[in-house]
Amino acid sequence: MSKIFNWPVRVYYEDTDVGGVVFYANYLKFYERARTEMLRDMGFEQDELIAQESVIFAVRSVQLDYLKPARFNELLNISAQLSSVKSASITFAQSVTRNNELLNTAMIRIACLDSGTLRPRLIPEVIKQAFNHE
Fold it and tell me: What's the mean pLDDT in 55-69?
């Protein structure tokens, strides 16, 4: 496994349900932001990947485990770590913690797609090399 990338997220009112608990689907948004920021930290902007490599990344599958609730105004840490890199997909192990307390875990597989056809394609070598050095 690669190094762990961490991204802080504050829980806003819009992230919660009527009880002040993070709505279950919003964990996916938190995970998406962390993966995007991880790519940015590696030197890849998604709009530039579309323009230069004709590549987009789309979620192929998700496995989430909800362990403990997060609440309004809490500061969370969202992690992203490469679990595997294949020819046309990447799997991330992700988690949400609050003060080192594990709240949620996820395994998220991302497919590499051609931005014009939306069909699967090989991950460009420059991206694959960067992932393999993580």
Answer: 97
